[in-house]
TrEMBL record:
Domain FMN hydroxy acid dehydrogenase positions: 100-472
Record domain Cytochrome b5 heme-binding: where: 1-74
Transmembrane domains' residue ranges: none
SUPFAM superfamilies hit by this protein: Cytochrome b5-like heme/steroid binding domain, FMN-linked oxidoreductases
Keywords, in A-Z order: Oxidoreductase
Name the UniProt record assigns to this protein: Uncharacterized protein
Length: 484
């Protein structure tokens, strides 16, 4: 196909674009595109390959209606295409201010400041967005400050070990990197850049179903990073990847994905259950509406503001997912299963009854239900009403943990491990792999220091008496009808 011909097709009546040297007609997909029509229209008549790869894995092309692929572009005519738009160009730093030197990032909050300075508005709204008024996210951040330590002194804390394990796999710390979708919004090299940051420390990470790179590419980039730097590390502490599953309502598609994940060597499957539908992402909606208005589409803007255009593909999350589905998921997966998004003691117990190996107490970083419980409250409920869960399952928590000391608090109250999300998105966005490494180092150092200051030297010494557990227990929610 001829570049000059493609260049003319840039309206909502006829919109073509080049992706990986192929010409696509996306006209009939404009209204269905979960990222909104405006962003596609802006790529009309251009080579959108770079921008596309910042957001999507090639897997999403399967969602285009049949017949959208028109054929290869005649490479000698590429110069006739409209010039590519490049979101990177929007990454401008305020005059006079540069990116803070990485050595000056000393708490995880420093990455947020750095990322905010340089992320384009759309990427910033994507990561910082929370549901409705933002209450769930704010409560997550506040919750951990309610926990105070009761340190023991004079205990010889010269040498400490932060070594732990996740589902039988040794890891250097009791924290891991939470799954976050569309990391192309943080960094052009997305998940590949993220997992390279796991190499030095041996940390574990959970990879999202909606990653920008393919499952196989992410797994092999970690293997390659390890091989390239064969620094005779302790192999028992090699970094490990786990996979977060959004269960497609199309069971065949879900099974196919589970098998791909298994073949790629992921260690465990974390099934997200707090997202039968997408929560109300307020900042995102404003951003999408603004973009649609800028493209002159009032109708699209109206729909975006009401969440009718969402960022989640229709066949990505299933509103009909139920407990019994865990049975076939478990069978197809055949390995350790974690339920991600448990928010009360009753469901924690159910997960145990369904034979899961782990649960993650999480409200999705405050991005789903408005006024959702923070993970600390759910952990305290479990301690009060079904403590046997803590003995039988690996219980993980996430949401608002920003300091290695927060990690220690969660462990004292019975958590096996802690997920950290946004700080790693911000670190990746601002500094790439080196930012990820630095963020791990900061959390690790804070954890080791907190351990010494409360008087323990290894994680098998954590105990509820090291925090104000009794006072916290008085404040927990008591179900009116306790049939746990
Ligand atoms: C033409 C083929 C395309 C298809 C089939 C497609 C499909 C999709 C799908 C299924 C989603 C939902 C999220 C996901 O599943 O990953 C999505 C979201 C999105 N897409 Fe596309 N897309 C295409 C092209 C593009 C292009 C060229 C751009 C940008 C230049 C783009 C930008 C976005 C954005 C920004 C989102 C929302 C992600 C967010 O939450 O920030 N897409 N798209
Ligand atoms: C930008 C972003 C994308 C996310 N994407 C996913 C996802 O694809 N799947 C999922 O189960 N959880 C997702 N989450 C939720 C995280 O896994 C985790 O529960 C949450 O971020 C933890 O809270 P924190 O960010 O306060 O540490 C996402 C969170 C953020 C901030």
């Amino acid at each position: 196909m001829d570049g000059a011909d493609v260049a003319k097709r840039n309206t909502s009546k006829c919109c073509w674009m080049v992706l990986n040297a192929q010409v696509y007609d996306v006209t009939s997909y404009l209204d269905q595109h979960p990222g909104g029509a405006a962003i596609l229209l802006a790529q009309g008549g251009r080579d959108a390959t770079i921008e596309f790869s910042r957001i999507h894995s090639p897997d999403v092309l399967q969602y285009l209606p049949t017949g959208s692929l028109l054929g290869p572009i005649d490479t000698s005519t590429i110069g006739a295409l409209a010039p590519p738009t490049n979101e990177e160009a929007l990454r401008s730093l305020p005059t006079g201010e540069g990116l803070r030197h990485l050595s000056k990032c000393v708490v995880t909050g420093d990455f947020e400041v750095a990322a905010k300075m340089m992320l384009p508005a759309r990427s910033w709204s994507y990561v910082s967005s929370s549901s409705n008024s933002g209450l769930s996210m704010a409560a997550n951040l506040d919750s951990w400050s309610a926990v105070r330590f009761r340190p023991r002194v004079l205990r010889d804390v010269q040498t400490v070990s932060t070594v732990s394990s996740i589902l039988g796999h040794r890891c250097p710390f009791p924290f891991y990197i939470s799954p976050m979708g569309i990391l192309g919004r943080a960094h052009a090299n997305a998940e590949v850049e993220l997992v390279r940051g796991f190499r030095r420390s041996g940390i574990h990470g959970v990879i999202s179903t909606v990653s920008t790179k393919t499952t196989e590419e992410i797994a092999s980039s970690l293997t390659e990073a390890l091989e390239r730097h064969d620094d005779s590390r302790d192999v028992s502490a090699a970094p490990q990847l786990h996979f977060q599953l959004y269960t497609s309502p199309d069971r065949e598609a879900a099974i196919k994905l589970i098998h791909r994940v298994k073949a790629a060597g992921f260690r465990s499957l974390w099934v997200t259950v707090d997202t039968p539908v997408l929560g109300k992402r307020t900042i995102d909606r404003r951003q999408l509406a603004e973009e649609a208005l800028a493209m002159g589409s009032d109708e699209q803007a109206r729909a975006a503001g009401l969440g009718i255009v969402t960022h989640v593909r229709q066949n990505q999350v299933s509103a009909s997912l139920a407990w019994t589905d865990l049975e076939w998921i478990k069978k197809e997966w055949g390995g350790p299963l974690v339920v991600k998004g448990i928010q009360c003691a009753e469901d924690a117990k159910l997960a145990m009854d369904y034979g899961c190996q782990g649960i993650l107490l999480s409200n999705h970083g405050g991005r789903q239900l408005h006024s959702a419980p923070d993970a600390l409250s759910t952990l305290l409920e479990i301690r009060a009403y079904c403590p046997e869960v803590l003995g039988n399952l690996e219980v993980f928590v996430d949401g608002g943990l920003r300091d290695g000391a927060d990690v220690l608090k969660a462990l004292c109250l019975g958590a096996k491990g802690v997920g950290v999300g946004r700080p790693f998105f911000y670190a990746l966005a601002a500094y790439g792999t080196r930012g990820v490494e630095r963020c791990i180092e900061i959390l690790a150092e804070e954890l080791a220091t907190a351990m010494r200051l409360v008087g323990i030297t290894s994680l098998d010494q954590v105990h509820p008496d090291l925090v104000n557990a009794r006072r916290l227990a008085n404040e927990i929610w008591r179900p009116l009808d306790s049939r746990l």
